[in-house]
TrEMBL record:
Domain of life: Bacteria
InterPro entries xrefs: AAA+_ATPase (IPR003593), ABC_AA/LPS_Transport (IPR051120), ABC_transporter-like_ATP-bd (IPR003439), BCA_ABC_TP_C (IPR032823), P-loop_NTPase (IPR027417)
UniProt cross-references to CDD domains, sorted A to Z: ABC_Mj1267_LivG_branched (cd03219)
Keyword Ion transport carried by entry: no
Protein name: ABC transporter ATP-binding protein
Listed GO MF terms: ATP binding; ATP hydrolysis activity
Keywords of the record: ATP-binding, Cell membrane, Membrane, Nucleotide-binding, Transport
Organism (species): Thauera propionica
GO cellular component, one term: plasma membrane
The UniProt record lists the keyword Cytoplasm: no
Amino acid sequence: MTDMNSAAAATPSGRRQGEVILDLQNISLRFGGVKALTDISFNIREHEIRSIIGPNGAGKSSMLNVINGVYHPQEGRILYRGEERRRLEPYMAARQGIARTFQNIALFKGMSVLDNIMTGRNLKMKSNIFQQALYWGAAQQEEIAHREKVEEVIDFLEIQNVRKTPVGQLPYGLQKRVELGRALAAEPSLLLLDEPMAGMNVEEKQDMCRFILDVNDQFGTTIVLIEHDMGVVMDISDRVVVLDYGKKIGDGAPDEVRNNEDVISAYLGTSH
Ligand SMILES: Nc1ncnc2c1ncn2[C@@H]1O[C@H](COP(=O)(O)OP(=O)(O)OP(=O)(O)O)[C@@H](O)[C@H]1O
C-alpha cells in the first residue's frame, strides 16, 4: 500500500501526482436526523484525478458540497495546503481556485454558449460598474482579455461552431461540455465534476473522458469526479474513494478498490 501522506506518490496511470492539497479529516455531516457523512477521511493530491463513487444516497454530492463550502460539516477538519481551512463560503472557494459542475445542467438556456462560458469569468473581473464608467479604456482592455480566455476554452472544447447558439438548443452532451467550459473559464486549480457523463451516449462519454484527461494533462488541473459509470471511473482515475451510507468503505488505486470485498458487496444488489 502506498503512503498516502508522502510528498509525492506513484499513479497507476503514470500521470504526475503532487503533494496533498486538500486533506479531509474525520468529516461528519448531518441534516437533522439524517447522517449524510460519518467520520470520513481522505485526501486529494495535486494533479490527480480522484473519483468518489458509491451507490445512490451514499453521500457523494454532499462530500463535493463540503469541499466547495456549500455545506459545513458539524465535525472534522479540512486542511488546504497544510493549513486548517476556516468556514468557507462558496464564493470564497471559487476565489481559492475551486470550480464545479452540477448533476443537473445549471446553465442559462436562453443565452449563447459564449455568454454562458463568459459567466465563468465573473469572479476574475476586477472592475465594477463604477470603475467601468470612470475608466472605460481599462475596463475595455479587461473585457478583451476575458474574451480571449473564453475563446481559448471554446477552442479547447471544440465548440467553435456553436459559440453563438443558445445553450437550450444544443444536444444534451454538448450542454454538458458547455458547463465544463464555464468551469474552465474560471481557470480552476481544483475542478469538481458531479456526474459529468450522466445521461450521455457512448460517443458523448468518450468525448467527455478525453476532455477531462486533456484538462488534467494540459493544465495540470486536479480533478474530483463523481461518476456512476464504473468503466469510466476505473479507466481515468488515479485514486478512488468509495462511500456507502455516508461511510468510507474503500480508498485506493482503481485495482485495489475493484478487489475490495466491502466495495464488491456494497455494489452487489444495487443497480450499478
Ligand atoms: N440538503 C439536504 N437536506 C437533507 N438531506 C440531505 C440533503 N442533501 C443530502 N441529503 C441526504 O444525505 C444523504 C446523502 O445524499 P447525497 O446526495 O450526498 O448522496 P449521493 O451519493 O450524491 O447520491 P446520488 O448518487 O443519488 O446523487 C441522503 O440520505 C440524502 O437524502
